[in-house]
């Protein structure tokens, strides 16, 4: 099983950006935790982070040509307005799980809506690093249920 983790805009700033909302874990530390979980689950995991919306869309476009069975995505602020990312995710024929570090529903009103949700199997928010780990477990479960 091969899982791809997509990190969107500003997520390379984890560990420095608003520690009250996002904690002190860096993106490298988050990815390390995901690698540890991947070993436990006996799956392969890859990562991609960008601050350029078009680059994320192009990375999503490449997924059907690769051996990727599932996607975990934290698109950051793009979650709330990027119809381009929604359209790209809608092309996929693999399970997609949306994750958020903070509880987006307890924050500013504009963060309460995900325009990506229609292309995702589900969303996990508010558990910090655990949101990513739960997202990986969820996507693996979805893939297994398809077999």
From TrEMBL:
Pathway involvement of the protein, from the record: Metabolic intermediate biosynthesis; chorismate biosynthesis; chorismate from D-erythrose 4-phosphate and phosphoenolpyruvate: step 3/7
Pfam family, one: DHquinase_II
Any one Gene Ontology BP term: quinate catabolic process
Alphabetic keyword roster: Amino-acid biosynthesis, Aromatic amino acid biosynthesis, Lyase
Catalytic reaction(s) noted: 3-dehydroquinate = 3-dehydroshikimate + H2O
Domain of life of the native organism: Bacteria
Function: Catalyzes a trans-dehydration via an enolate intermediate.
Family: Belongs to the type-II 3-dehydroquinase family.
Listed PANTHER family: CATABOLIC 3-DEHYDROQUINASE
Full protein name: 3-dehydroquinate dehydratase
């Amino acid at each position: 099983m091969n899982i791809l983790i997509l990190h969107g805009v500003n997520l390379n700033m984890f560990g420095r950006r608003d520690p009250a909302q996002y904690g002190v874990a860096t993106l490298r530390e988050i990815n390390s935790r995901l690698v540890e979980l991947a070993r436990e689950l006996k799956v392969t995991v890859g990562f991609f982070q960008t601050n350029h919306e078009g680059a994320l869309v192009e990375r999503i476009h490449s997924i059907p040509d690769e051996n990727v069975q599932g996607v975990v995505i934290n698109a950051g602020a793009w979650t709330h307005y990027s119809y381009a990312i929604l359209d790209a995710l809608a092309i996929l024929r693999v399970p997609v799980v949306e994750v958020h570090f903070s509880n987006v529903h307890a924050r500013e009103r504009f963060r309460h809506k995900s325009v990506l949700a229609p292309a995702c199997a589900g969303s996990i928010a508010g558990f910090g690093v655990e949101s990513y780990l739960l997202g990986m477990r969820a996507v693996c479960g979805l893939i297994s249920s398809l077999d």
